[in-house]
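Sample A.
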Amino acid sequence: MSKKYFQNEQWEENEMEFFPKRKVSNKLSWKIHHIAGSFYSNKMKRIIEYESMGECLFYFFLELATEVERYYVQPLEIEVPFLTKEGDRKSWIHVPDVLVFVNGFKSTLFQIKESPQESKKHVLINKICKKYSAQRQWEYKVIYPKKLPQNILYNIKFLQGAIRKRKRFDEWIPEIIYRVEHMKGVTIDELASSFSPKVNPLLILPAIYHLIATGILQINITKEIDQYSEVRLKKLNEELLPYLNLDGDLFEYK
């Protein structure tokens, strides 16, 4: 992804242009195994639908990635022309998976796949989508979220559940940040326990995970998060998921 800082778009216009162009359906699950569902997006302030675990995992990642400003699922209808066996020119409409607006990079249109096995149809779709994206000065990427290591997939799903702020978090967050700043190399368990007996450590844990999920505190995302994970304050311009940034290759197949 080429670095290119862009000015904030008029998000209201984007909402109108990039609304979902088709409804998520599970009606073919008897033939093609996939999982359809939805979740509430704290970033987009609405329900986001998905029709595979790969989509779900990537949308969870977009929720966590602090550099992502907006993302729009099923955002476009792209005409894909082809020739029939008889030589007739025809076309069908393809709807890509998600368009992502990223602070500091070109906007990117993503196609989410289970595996790198591609038919002639998929090759044609990628060619047309790449050309369309270039015309709009976007990037185009085909990604495989389910190919990520299991511990990273676990962390994405775990932290997604910690994004929502609960009652009383504002009461504890300043103190948590202060203690992390002065307790070098502190683990999650040690940080929570430091509030005892003033506050039950079990009440502090969700606030700590919330600060990690929202990018205020940092952990090593490549190791499965647990009570022994060390936390520290996020440095200036440091991303929540430094090993999973959109300019990297972990989402691409090797």
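Sample B.
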Amino acid sequence: MNKKTKSFLYNLLGFLPFYVLTYFLVKEFTGVTGVWIPLIAAVSTTLLAPKFQAVKLHGEEKIYMKWLFTKGVKEVK
């Protein structure tokens, strides 16, 4: 499996738990209805979830992660 596919899967696995949790919290604890529930969940999850990206440096592809709750960019092994 190449690094771009891995970074996509990491993004998906990082996004889904935050989205499901946020969707449930917005639905249960606010008065928001209709299409606004998934929209609010998606926007807030986009801000909260970690971002992974495959980058090619010096002929070698590496995966890096950036997250709101960590300082700087971290390399994922």
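B remarks: The longest helix spans residues 3-29. The first strand starts at residue 51 and ends at 57.
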